Amino acid sequence: MSVQPVRNADLIVINGRVLTMDSTRPTAEAVAVVDGLIAAVGDNATVEALRGPDTKIIDARGGSVVPGFIEAHMHLFSGAAELAHLQLAGVSGLDALREAVLAYAAARPNQRMLVGQGADYTILGSERVTRHHLDAILPDRAFIMAAPDHHTYWANTKALEMADVLHGRELTPGNEIVMGDDGLAEGELRENEAFNPVLKLAGEERVRLGLSTGGEPDPVPEGDERAGDRAIMRRGLDWCARHGITSIQNMDGNFYQLELLSEVQAEGDLICRVQIPFHYKNFMTPDALDKASVMAERYDGDWLSSGLVKMFYDGVLDSWTAVMIEPYADRPDWVGEPLFSPEEFKRIATEIDRRGLQIAVHSIGDGATRAVLDGYEAAAKVNGKRDSRHRVEHVELTTASDIQRFVDLGVIASMQPPHPPGAMSFPLEPTVSRIGRQRWPYAYPTRTLIEAGAHVVFASDWPVAPIDPIEGMQAAMLRKPWAEDMPDQSVSLHQALAGYTVEGAYAEFKEDRKGQLKPGYFGDLVVLSADIEATDPAVLHQVRPVTTICGGRVSYQA
Ligand SMILES: [Zn+2]
């Protein structure tokens, strides 16, 4: 009788506090990877039996070893491009803004349009930012800056003039160039149609196409231009690997992004698995979904995939563009304007569902969330109930009755732990006053949804918030109520980790392949600098990825 020789491991991680997220074996010391897949999980001795002369050994030195993080909602291409923008997070007051803008401008004397990002809605305190503030800082060069949520930009006069929007422009509902009493634009531009003409001048239209129109670049970039775009993608993938991310669920997209990533893959540099959706906009007609079906068919691999349709139902609270059931607390005659009518949304959702595709809809207000759930319910009625795993992105506000519908309809709630005001980088105001005391109990209802039994995935929405999943876990665990009588929405370490691992895998229909450290699963894991279970949550952000491994290959090493 002959014994099949056991193949040696390509890579072994030893001496770890392994949190497998596999309920049949929650903890271990070591993990072995063969041919990109996990071959063994267990104690050091058992796993080291697979060690051969060429096996790479990684000593975790008692640090946690967890499944590679799955980022369930982010924007790879534009986020990567924005790493080069003026970073305004944490900048407060006109003097500090002036200092930051002037230094950035001085270092880029030939740049046609200067772009800042991460400017809080309250960067000038209670005073609303206008073009006049920005003119006082930089009168003769075009400058624009984005709010962290990217739903509002502020432009100076020069930028408004160059983009020919100083006198306003006709826009579709939900978009607004805020006009002043003098009949000229004030500088505040709400939503894509309002700020795209200005952003276009920055020459980064291509990186935002997947978000702004879902369309393809025309002409198709070749040569240096295309190589530059691939370099942006690589920079974004590196940024993800550095933060322990091994899978990305991108929330904007087109063929161009998939093609660039395939080229990066052919060059051997695709170091994260990426899912790119088709973006359906309200100016399209349902036949545009043919493209979504082709994307799904053509890209269906372990490394690059599609199969998802992203939509926006509303905007954001801070610019009153989120859709509410009852009026805004600080604008009693206004509930927001949806980007689709409820009937239109039902029709489109039914058509997407009929094609067997998954749907993810940006929905912030409780009115939007209700309409989106209604759409999913309508689709299931017409097409029959199936394992559709449609998603609602953000769910910043909802109601008690709709919480239960997430469970009943099998809809995934995609939550961003860094987003609740006061949780990480976003200030309490103006958001909490806009929501109003009455709605606070169902604002950002992470724990309520988890305890109700809904599937909840976690993400950053980078570049809206910092990408770091560990900071996200910390924000989710340390979430504080805005008032004593509000329900506690904080989660446990295990729930936080699940939101960035197993739940993310479920959202991709890949819970049989990723999100856990289990034999046969992808060799996607992260070795952390400390034992996260023994770390005080207050300093969890100090725990850093030391080694990120994706498909058995080291994608980041500190
Ligand atoms: Zn997003």
UniProtKB/TrEMBL annotation:
SUPFAM superfamilies linked to this entry: Composite domain of metallo-dependent hydrolases, Metallo-dependent hydrolases
InterPro entries: Amidohydro_3 (IPR013108), Metal-dep_hydrolase_composite (IPR011059), Metal_Hydrolase (IPR032466), YtcJ-like (IPR033932)
Domain Amidohydrolase: 56-556
Any single Pfam family the record assigns to this protein: Amidohydro_3
Protein name (record): Amidohydrolase 3 domain-containing protein
Species of the source: Aminobacter ciceronei
Lineage: Bacteria, Pseudomonadati, Pseudomonadota, Alphaproteobacteria, Hyphomicrobiales
